[in-house]
């Protein structure tokens, strides 16, 4: 059953599993997009070596079951109260597991992980960094799943042979979730949607199928890959636990989910999500626009049998993660929200610029050998200036992406819709508006990522009628308007660009 069918769904609510980089949430929404119940649990960030970032997939699955049960219990909900459930997930994070035992062959390799840097160089020597861009919309980078899969196949004993026979399965987190929800070793469904598949660097953007030529180049057996489906259809039903019998009917990578949750259904509409990283997406309609300015071309969503919609994306690796670093590694703040208080102790950045290239620079630079730098330090600089520079780094990186997006799309953005954890920070949002020179708008429902997954699931079973019903749910909570002289804006941005060049080519 596909999206926008006339099926009458039972159930008063829709649910969404929101599996992010640092935590897992289960959120229940009503028909207006209002949150009815929510539960959340963080998981461990594992750093075995410099540049390596891992998660324990089994911990994530346990947490998922806990938060589903917790949210359902909050409002005494039964499985029958949910019309459908959607999944949204951290993208590119790579899980490889055994079909017969359900056990992962090792920890998940997280999207931020840089261990495949040498492989990026190796593959770039024959055809350059854009060797597969025409087919996939993506440059060669440590970011995407393909080279992570290849690394696991090359380093986990005996896994390649089992992968060739289909006994070893690959999935991004959405696929791992769906497989476990629908039965796991007892016939779990091994599938993904077009948005997640488009982040592996293995799917052809035109055909929406695995590209055999690229699979061969990377040495990845097709037998281990999930089936590619639309973002909105009934993939199967949950087999046990608090969701037993509920249709799993929507899958979207987290940034595409936020685009849908922000109801950016028209070509030219854009949103920016401020989470662990920072991700701006612009809907380009049924046309896949190949970037000339360092952006990614990706699938925005595909609703059932309707044509796929595409997007340009600017991915920034480190945004909220920089605030966490100030908290956990330097101890400058006790909680992430304290960063705004600390940053307000100074009137400006004091000439300090913080380029958080902890795992290289993503859009629009794509320099995997860049590393973080703090520039412009003097005896005058204090921890308030560091906090302010950390917040401003997110806004400057967003401006770089926006400029590239406007050049590629030839569309001037009037307003930027924003969401994610950092949009609660008034200082950051005002500076973002100032440095962009245009309004920044926060919607009434801030959990737009989970909402997008709930929307696609609800559309698939007829809980939501159509896109117009979803558009009608969108409402403004707050708007920030620019209040900075053009000359000052240009001066700050010029110094930021100078600081960025200092981070380039740090590693040989």
Structural features, described:
With 508 residues, this protein is α+β, with helices and mostly antiparallel strands. Helix content is 33%, strand content 22%. The strands form 7 sheets. It has a 7-stranded mixed sheet with strand order 17-18-16-15-21-22-23. It has a 6-stranded mixed sheet with strand order 3-2-1-5-14-13, with helices on both faces. A hairpin with a 4-residue loop joins strand 10 and strand 11 (209-210). Helix 9 (254-261) packs across helix 14 (448-460) and helix 12 (383-409) packs across helix 13 (426-436). The protein is globular, with a radius of gyration of 22 Å. The model is unreliable at 1-8 (pLDDT under 50).
SSE map:
Elements: E1 13-19, E2 23-29, E3 35-42, E4 54-55, H1 57-74, E5 82-89, E6 94-98, E7 108-109, H2 117-124, H3 133-136, H4 145-155, H5 159-164, E8 168-172, H6 173-181, E9 191-193, H7 194-197, E10 203-204, E11 209-210, H8 212-218, E12 227-229, E13 232-237, E14 247-253, H9 254-261, E15 270-274, E16 278-285, E17 296-301, E18 309-316, H10 320-328, H11 338-343, E19 353-355, E20 373-375, H12 383-409, E21 416-419, H13 426-436, E22 440-443, H14 448-460, H15 467-473, E23 476-480, H16 486-503
Helix pairs in contact: 9-14, 10-12, 12-13
Pick out its properties.
single chain, 508 residues, alpha+beta, six-stranded mixed beta sheet, disordered N terminus
First-to-last CA distance? 52 Å
Q: What is the mean predicted local confidence, pLDDT?
A: 93
The helix/strand class is alpha+beta
Largest sheet: 7 strands, mixed
Taking Cα atoms only, what radius of gyration do you get, to the nearest Å?
22 Å
What portion of residues is helical? 25-40%
Classify the beta-strand content into a percent band: 15-25%
Number of strands: 23
> How many DSSP helices?
16
């Amino acid at each position: 059953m596909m999206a926008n069918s006339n099926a009458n769904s039972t159930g008063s609510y829709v649910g969404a599993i929101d599996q992010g980089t640092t935590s897992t949430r289960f959120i229940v929404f009503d028909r207006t997009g209002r949150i009815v119940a929510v539960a959340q649990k963080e998981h461990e960030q594992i750093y075995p070596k410099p540049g390596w970032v891992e998660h324990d997939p089994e911990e994530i699955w346990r947490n998922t079951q806990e938060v589903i049960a917790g949210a359902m219990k909050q409002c005494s909900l039964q499985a029958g109260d949910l019309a459908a459930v959607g999944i949204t997930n951290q993208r590119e994070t790579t899980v490889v597991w055994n079909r017969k035992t359900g056990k992962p062959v090792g920890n998940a390799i997280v999207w931020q992980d840089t261990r495949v840097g040498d492989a990026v160089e190796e593959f770039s020597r024959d055809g350059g960094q854009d060797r597969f861009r025409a087919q996939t919309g993506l440059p060669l980078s440590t970011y995407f799943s393909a080279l992570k899969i290849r690394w696991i196949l090359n380093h986990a004993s005996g896994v390649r042979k089992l992968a060739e026979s289909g006994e070893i399965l690959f999935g991004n987190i959405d696929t791992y979730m769906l497989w476990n929800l629908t039965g796991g070793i007892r016939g779990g469904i091994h599938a993904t949607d077009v948005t997640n598949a488009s982040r592996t660097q293995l799917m052809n953007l035109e055909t929406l199928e695995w590209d055999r030529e690229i699979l061969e180049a990377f040495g990845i057996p097709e037998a281990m890959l999930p089936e590619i489906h639309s973002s909105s259809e009934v993939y199967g039903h949950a087999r046990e636990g608090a969701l037993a019998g509920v249709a799993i009917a929507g899958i979207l990578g987290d940034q595409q989910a936020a685009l849908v949750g922000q109801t950016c259904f028209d070509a030219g509409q854009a949103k920016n999500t401020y989470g662990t990283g920072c991700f701006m997406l612009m809907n380009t309609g049924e046309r896949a626009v190949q970037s000339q300015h360092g952006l990614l071309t990706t699938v925005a969503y595909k609703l059932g049998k309707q044509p796929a919609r595409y997007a340009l994306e600017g991915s920034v690796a480190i945004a909220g993660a920089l605030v966490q670093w100030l908290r956990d590694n330097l101890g400058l703040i006790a909680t992430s929200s304290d960063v705004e208080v600390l940053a307000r102790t100074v009137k400006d950045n004091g000439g300090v610029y913080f380029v958080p290239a902890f795992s290289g620079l993503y859009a629009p630079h794509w320099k995997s050998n860049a590393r973080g730098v703090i520039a412009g330090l003097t005896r005058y600089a204090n921890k308030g200036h560091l906090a302010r520079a950390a917040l401003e780094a997110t806004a400057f990186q967003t401006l770089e992406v926006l400029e590239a997006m406007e050049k590629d799309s030839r569309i001037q953005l009037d307003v930027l819709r924003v969401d994610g954890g950092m949009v609660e920070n008034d200082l950051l949002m005002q500076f973002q508006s100032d440095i962009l020179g245009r309004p920044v708008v926060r919607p009434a429902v801030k959990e737009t990522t989970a909402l997008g997954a709930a929307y696609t699931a609800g559309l698939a079973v007829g809980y939501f009628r159509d896109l117009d019903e979803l558009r009608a749910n969108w409402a403004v909570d707050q708007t920030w308007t620019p209040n900075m002289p053009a000359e000052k804006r240009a001066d700050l941005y010029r110094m930021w660009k100078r600081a960025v060049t200092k981070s380039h080519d740090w590693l040989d």
